[in-house]
């Protein structure tokens, strides 16, 4: 009886320690399970976030690539248009040079044609034809007769005036009252004809298609 009582505290202590160890192990086991579950969840979420960011980065890269490609195409188109305009301007400059130098055409006959055309486009029978002095000398006295013939035998009253201010060549025709004016100077005529001429030049040179889309032109 005495021996059993003496050992009771020791046994109790061992039982308490054993119980503590079991509880500690259970706590550690549950903590390990919770930690493993948390790590797994974090890994899944991290993978999902990486995939989302990767898809976003790919979409952004594709968008920027498309913007870059579009910008390059626009720039290339603008450069081509600038080149076409430069070439067409060179053609116009060459045409004007030949007109000024009276190259490859009968200038005297050209003056007669310009005067006759202006008269035919105007109303009435009385006209004033203005030329610079050198062109007036080149025509001589035949201009009035030429214009009368163009009227089909009708009666025309034509006055020829010299105007030193008319540079570049050609004629200006007006009626005596100044209500009508037809500017057939070479430069003015080239300006009027150039839009259609430049289109024809551009098409024949292959700079633009013969039937461009609506709203598109050289």
Overview of this structure, please?
The protein has 5 helices and 4 strands; from the N terminus they run ααβααβββα. With 218 residues, the protein is an alpha+beta fold. The termini are far apart. The radius of gyration is 49 Å and the shape is rod-shaped. Strands 2-1-3-4 form a 4-stranded mixed beta sheet. Helices cover 67% and strands 10% of the residues. It has 2 domains: 1-104; 106-204, hypothetical protein PF0899 fold (2-Layer Sandwich).
Task: Please give the share of residues in helix.
Answer: 55-70%
How many individual helices? 5
Query: From N to C, what is the helix and strand string?
Result: HHEHHEEEH
Please outline the major beta sheet.
Answer: 4 strands, mixed
């Amino acid at each position: 009886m005495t021996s059993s009582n003496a050992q009771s505290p020791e046994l109790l202590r061992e039982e308490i320690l054993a119980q503590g160890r079991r509880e500690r192990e259970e706590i550690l086991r549950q903590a390990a399970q919770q930690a493993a579950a948390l790590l797994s969840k974090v890994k899944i979420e991290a993978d999902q976030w990486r995939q989302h960011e990767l898809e976003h980065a790919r979409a952004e890269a594709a968008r920027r690539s498309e913007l870059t490609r579009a910008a390059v195409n626009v720039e290339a188109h603008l450069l081509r248009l600038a080149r076409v305009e430069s070439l067409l301007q060179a053609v116009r400059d060459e045409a004007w040079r030949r007109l000024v130098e009276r190259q490859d055409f009968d200038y005297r006959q050209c003056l007669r044609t310009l005067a006759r055309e202006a008269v035919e486009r105007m109303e009435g029978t009385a006209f004033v034809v203005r030329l610079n002095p050198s062109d007036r000398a080149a025509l001589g006295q035949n201009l009035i007769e030429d214009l009368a013939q163009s009227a089909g035998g009708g009666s025309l009253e034509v006055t020829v005036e010299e105007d030193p201010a008319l540079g570049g060549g050609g004629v200006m025709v007006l009626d005596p009252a100044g209500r009508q004016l037809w500017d057939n100077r070479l430069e003015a005529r080239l300006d009027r004809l150039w839009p259609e001429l430049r289109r024809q030049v551009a098409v024949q040179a292959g700079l633009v298609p013969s039937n461009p889309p609506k709203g598109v032109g050289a």
